[in-house]
Amino acid sequence: MTYIVVGLSFALYIGIAVWSRASSTGEFYVAGAGVHPVANGMATAADWMSAASFISMAGLIAFLGYDASVYLMGWTGGYVLLALLLAPYLRKFGKFTVPEFIGDRFYSKGARLVAVICLIVASVTYVIGQMRGVGVAFGRFLEVPFEIGVYVGMGIVFIYAVLGGMKGITYTQIAQYCVLIFAYTVPAIFISLNLTGHFLPQVGLGSTMADGSGVALLEKLDQVVTDLGFAAFTAQKWPTINIFLLTLSLMIGTAGLPHVIIRFFTVPKVADARASAGWALVFIAVLYTTAPAVGAMARLNLMSTIQTGPVGEETANIEVAQVPRWMEHWRTTGLLDWKDKNGDGRIQYYDEGGMGGKADTFGWQGNEMTKVDRDIMVLANPEIAKLPNWVIALVAAGGLAAALSTAAGLLLAISSAISHDLIKGMIAPGISEKRELLASRISMAAAIILAGYLGLNPPGFAAQVVALAFGLAASSIFPALMMGIFNKRMNREGAIAGMLVGLFSTLIYIFWFKGWFFIPDTAMAKDSVDHWLMGISPEAFGAVGAGLNFTVAYIVSRATAPPPDEIQHLVEDIRIPRSAGSPERH
Amino acid sequence: MNEHDNARAYWRATLRLVTGCLIVWFLVSYGLGILLVDELNRFSLGGYPLGFWFAQQGSIYVFVVLIFFYTHRMKKLDRKFDVHED
Question: Which class does domain A2-300+385-574 fall in?
Fold first, then answer.
């Protein structure tokens, strides 16, 4: 069953690829700037929502509760910044890549090169996770070895990204959005109906339990987890300053991620770029407002599967011999494990620190759920809720769609930076369009092979690199773009100084706590709240780096000569919508 | 009014709109969802504590509405200052 559903979805993607081949660099880089704003919104949503959004986010919410709001607000609020501050103006500028804007606006190849480096580091680190997501989805659902899964994923992306460029990717992403959103919402609707009798998970999460107790679901969840020593679901655990800055970092990081920005180069008009950001957020919000319900309900289901009655009663914990099939199934994947420490033939799942001495009085000798991987919350959700097989197959296809669509968008950002900014922009400016198109296809193929290689042999730091991608985008790319549009007086010297200060302050702060270049044991201080500067985690530092960038750029630009007249005219021109045609042909 | 002044007036109007929208953006997410969350959690919206609802649901809905409001108002500004496309 799973094979059929996944096979059908792949056949669809390849069919689209063959139908939408790119024949010019304009089509390869920006789909000929002819994509309808709603279609682009949908493609942007698929581009944006990665394996992490699909698989990991609900798991994060399940275990972090309120604190996971940083991801929900951070990864959606960035679209407001994109729509209001960047998308329409970059569309009016009408070129193909983000480094190209920075290079032209700051009349400097050096600035363009810094932007290319930031873009490649941010995108490559990001794409590793997507390739691994493909391998994991194959491994878990189709029981294919991880490596084969990555190869198949590479093959599929290769077909539509190399052939179709942005045009192929756009139409495939639209199909992938439909697959992934259907796969995400169907199990959520069933589970919400089960627990609360409400069809919409967004309403279900705020309703009373359907068991007749009249207790609100969130209240019940708080009760269940605190009884077992865990922190309350709706309570705040992190310091407020960290929640504040992490949300801000994720928002400006989102607005500064190049693979998202280039999607807004594909619409015909400036007004379309504004509307398109709104549509993108509508399509994203469908998943992001469902995720809290999935997280909370999955946590409740998990807790009540193991703790079947009042805490402390002898028969209120599930017997080891009677665990449901899904638990046995997921134990074989290593994502879930348990050990009957006190030998009572039953499983106890609780927080040892939170329970304290009370656990001893029940004869409990430690938490017996030795491994509960967060990802399991979405992956095993349909089985936990006893949903039919086709729903499980759908989740597999959805996870693959999320990972593949994001991988393709990132790969396009990388390959266009190489072929357009490095080769055409710096190494061989006289290259013909035909040769540039060939160069972009070759760089795409090379980027896919590199991404696949890194997915198969991930550097030890794979888990921490997301912080790096957002930190770089937030501290270097976003401020440079924003000042390029909103500050006419901003010049080359200011922009470069700002980007470098933002970039290095953020890098150093991350490396300080996570190890230089993520090499274990080289960290200068322990990565914990007592050691962080004013309680700011390395993940949240991007916002501070951006602040430093703005400040330094402003001071340096005032101390040096203003930009030349033609640049000031360029800025005046991008602020006005009229005369925005299709992207300028080179 | 010459073209240059018109462009300046259009830009000032744009900045006013963007600033207004960003104030709402900030208040709803950082204000209601983060800084005032404990105060708001004393109230509830159905089964949701109110602050928690803003952090995990409400802010996202407001973001969507905000972008479309901005898009709509910009369209009007584009016409008013005669800088619209086509």
Answer: mainly alpha
Closest-CA distance, A252 to chain B, in angstroms, reads: 13
* Nearest CB neighbour to B18, from listed A72, A84, A236: A84
Q: What is the pLDDT along chain A (586 residues), one digit of tens a residue?
A: 778 888 888 888 888 888 877 778 888 878 778 889 999 999 999 999 988 788 888 888 999 999 999 999 999 999 999 999 999 999 998 888 899 999 999 999 889 998 998 898 888 888 887 887 888 777 777 777 778 888 888 888 888 788 888 888 888 899 999 999 998 999 999 999 988 989 999 998 988 888 878 888 999 999 999 989 899 999 888 888 889 999 999 999 999 999 999 999 989 999 999 999 999 999 999 999 999 999 999 999 889 889 988 888 888 889 888 888 888 888 887 778 999 988 888 999 999 888 888 888 888 888 999 888 887 888 888 887 778 878 888 888 888 888 888 888 898 889 888 888 888 887 878 888 888 888 888 888 888 898 888 888 766 555 556 667 888 889 999 999 999 999 999 999 999 999 999 989 988 888 887 777 666 677 777 777 777 777 788 888 889 999 999 999 999 999 999 999 999 999 999 999 887 444 444 4
Measured in angstroms, the CA of B66 and the nearest CA of chain A are apart by 8
Closest CA of chain B from A65, distance in Å? 10
Alpha helices (runs of H) in A197-269, residue ranges in sequence order: 201-204, 217-227, 240-256, 258-261
- The separation between CA A286 and the C-alpha centre of its own chain, rounded to angstroms, equals 15
Which residues contact residue A139 at a Cβ distance below 8 angstroms, ignoring those fewer than 6 apart? A145, A146, A149, A333
- Residue B6 at interface with chain A, using a CB cutoff of 8 Å: no
- Flag if B59 and A77 touch (Cβ within 8 Å): yes
Would you tell me how many other CB atoms lie within 10 Å of the CB of residue A436? 20
> Does residue A270 sit at the B interface (CB-CB below 8 Å)?
yes
**Interface contacts A/B by beta carbons within 8 Å:** 134
Residue among B18, B33, B70 whose CB faces A73 most closely:
B33
Q: Which of B7, B37, B53 sits opposite A236 (nearest CB)?
A: B37
| Distance (Å, whole) CA A483 – CA A303 | 49
Residues of A in contact with B86 (CB under 8 A): 269
Helix (H) or strand (E) holding A336: strand A336-337
B38 near A CB under 8 A: yes
Tokens read off for A444: 């795409």
CA distance B60 to chain A (A): 7
Question: B49-68 burial, b if ≥16 CB within 10 A, otherwise e?
Answer: bbbbbbbbbbbbebbbebbb
Residue type, A553: A
Round to whole Å and give the CA distance between A415 and A529. Answer: 39
CA angle (A558 as vertex; A552, A560 as ends), nearest 5: 100
What's the whole-model pTM score?
Answer: 0.91
Neighbours of A461 (CB within 10 A): 17
Strands (E), B1-86: 44-45, 48-49
Candidates A445, A415, A401, A394; CA nearest to A172 is A401
Report the C-alpha gap between A258 and A526 in whole angstroms. 32
Q: How far apart are the first and last CA of chain B?
A: 22
Interface contact B13, partner A, CB < 8 A: no
* Residue of B2, B60, B70, B78 to mutate when probing chain A, most A C-beta within 10 A: B60
For residue A585, the tally of other CB atoms under 10 A from its CB is 8
A265 contacts A91 by C-beta, under 8 angstroms: yes
